[in-house]
Each structure stands twice: as C-alpha cells, then as structure tokens.
Amino acid sequence: MAANKIRRGSSGCLPEEMIREILVRLPPRHLLRCRTICKAWRRLATDDAFILDHHARQPAQPLLTVYPFVAPHINCLEAVDLRTNKRRMVARFVEKAPRPFSNDAATNIAYNIYGAVVVHASCDGLLLLSFHETFFLCNPATRQGALLPLFRDGRGIAGFYRHAASAEYRVLYHQLRYRRVEGLHRKYYVFTLGSQQARNIELRTSLTAVGEGLAKGLAVSSKWPPVLLHGSLHWPPQQSQEGNILVFDTAAESFRWIAPPPTAVIQDENNDTRLFEMEGTLAMFYWEQDARISDLWFLEDYEEANWVCKHRVELSVKLVYEPLPFYPAIPYREGDMLVPEGSDTVLHYDKAGKLQGSFESFVMGLRITPHMLKESLVLHEFLHTQKNGGASEWFSEVEFADGLPVTELPF
Q1: pTM reported for the whole predicted model
Q2: Is the peptide bond preceding residue 328 cis, with omega within 30 degrees of 0?
Q3: Looking at residue 357, what is its pLDDT?
Q4: Which residues lie below 8 Å from residue 237, measured CB to CB, with a gap of 6+?
Q5: What average pLDDT score do residues 138-155 get?
Q6: Domain with 22 in it: what CATH number?
Q7: For the chain, what is the domain count?
Q8: Domain containing residue 86
Q9: What percent helix, strand, coil does the chain show, rounded to 5?
Q10: Fewer CB within 10 A of the end CB, N or C, for the chain?
Q11: Is 138 helix (H, G, I), strand (E, B) or coil?
C-alpha cells in the first residue's frame, strides 16, 4: 500500500511519515505555527501520541533566573540550550508598581535574593514558581497557568512529581504546626493539582530514625530538587537523615533510606552534594570547598544499593563557594554541569570535566537553578479548566516570552 501523503499547496506532496518526522523535531513555538498551515498538518500535530513523542524529543534545558539591575522592576526566567550554550527568555515578571530603588547596595542585593522569582520545581514541562509571595504553576509552551493560593512559604516545598497510577501531578510539602500538648511539630502534605485542598499523609517509615529526621524537615526543592526514579523521590544525603539518601515511594507514600556511596559527604556550608539521573539510574557527586576534582558515582544495583565510581571529574577552574545568588557546580541529566566563573561568566562542562563552552552572566544578577525545562504541548485538564483556559491573564505580572536573552533586550 502506498504511503499516506499530505498535499502542500501546488508544490507537490510528501509522505505523511516524513512530515511527521520533521514536525516532531521542531521547537514548540515553530510547531504551533505549522499547525496553522493546513488542516492535515493540524490534525497530525495535535494527535495525542504525536504530542507525547514531541515532548520526549525536546532537549532538557537548565533554567536561570535573571535580575537585571538596569531594570530593577523586572525579573526574567531563561533557559540554556546545552547543545549551543545559547540562552533564551522563557518568561519575565514585571512589577506593576515598581519598588523605589534603594541607594543602599545591601538592600538591593537582599531584594534580589529574597524577592526575585524562584523556581521551586519542574516536571514534564510544568514549572512550579513563586514571585514574591505569590505561587503558581505554569506551562510556558502553552502559555497556561494557575495560581496556587494554598502555598505561602517555599521553604516547605520538597518535591513535585507525576503519580504513575493516577497520572496526577502532585506536590509534596511540609509545614510547622503548633499544638498545646505536642508543641511545634511538622506535618507532611500531598497536594494534587486541580484539587481544592491538600491531604495530610502519615509518616510511614522503615526506621524510627527516618521519622525523627523528617520531623526536622527536608531540603527545599528550589535548591536541592529530589530525583524521581522507579516511582520514588530521592534526596541527597542530609544531616537530618544521618547522611543517608532519603526515598519517598510515591505509590505507598512511605519513606525509607538508601545507603550513599562510601565516600559521600553530608550537604553543608563547605560541601555541595548533588543527586541527578544519568544513564537511567541515580548518579551522585559532591564538591568540597576549593576543590577541582570529584568522583562521579552510579547506583548500579538499585535493590542492593551498590554504588560504582565510573568517572573522576576534573575541572579547569577551582570552585569557590560564594553566597547567593551563585551555586558552586550544578549537574544536570547526563552529567552536564554549569559552573559560575567569577561574576560574569558561566562555564559548561560535560561529565568528564571537559569544557563545552560558556555564556555571559550578570554581576550579582544571575542565578543558576538546579532545574530543567523540557517543553511540552500537552494540555492538562487542571490548567484548561482555569479562567480563560488558563491563559496568561491569570497573573498579570507574568509575560511569557520566547526569544532573546535579557542581555539583548532594550529596557
């Protein structure tokens, strides 16, 4: 049987399979334009299976937040294409009533650190963000979003994930509560996007020590996002968990430990320990202050917690731990790392420590986040049911963009 063909004007025709292979590789903004060419292309490019395939082929791009001092009322969210080391703006956040710019440098820096846009989590093209005290979820590719009035403090957000059995998107967070008898204690909640209230979960654990550590809280996902693997969230070693890797089974909603690599160190002010996914399994490395060399470990046997050291990463620059807004070295999927060099350049290394390129930054104006955006044109019901179909009117201070980085924009 001859291949199905889609006629394009009078210039001839192409097999549908060929057109599909072309469209599925396009960035979302270009694909959306191609949908308007003809009904056949729109039918092909809006098919559910096509949309999922398109999402799977999109590059995972590290996210940056930028606070341009030339325009102090604007905060920007940017993405970096690791294939080209080019930046592009994803969205910008404009204060409709700009604050008076202070002559005190310390005040302005504090505002930058504590008042700018924060990326709390990323999952399947969805971003959990906050701007000042407003929390919201959005999909930059579809320009949809929803306010999350339930959240008041990002320090309790621990993870954001897709629940496999129900296909629901859920947020795990904790809050401090006070009772006369118990005093201060921490409660954990799961909030399902699209629902009206969160659900308190029992702290089911494999060891008493796990629960005691949970009572002290979890690392915030904005700085140390957990890795979702085998239906569970995994956090890097923390003092509250006696240096073990904490695991949250998203199906059973229970907590347990996995032993870390033998040379692992606990996250503190002098060390930075990172977990990430690589080659289909957990990977981990840590940097000690002023270090240039680190071992890269892989969890080769998940059930037996068997770690194997496969790479020794040696950078060409010495890492210097600086206060916010910079982080020392952040690894991403497949081992790529972004490392700030001084205050005006960010270096891109691969998993072997080989320099892959660089891009310019701002003096105290750019923050490398540990999150990545893998764009998706999937239309989620919990966003579509929002006012105006979740269009950008839901939060007037957000302006979605897809173009030049903030360094090339006129203000």
Answers
A1: 0.85
A2: no
A3: 92
A4: 243, 244, 245, 260, 264, 265, 266, 267, 273
A5: 85
A6: 1.20.1280
A7: 2
A8: 58-408
A9: 20, 40, 40
A10: N
A11: strand
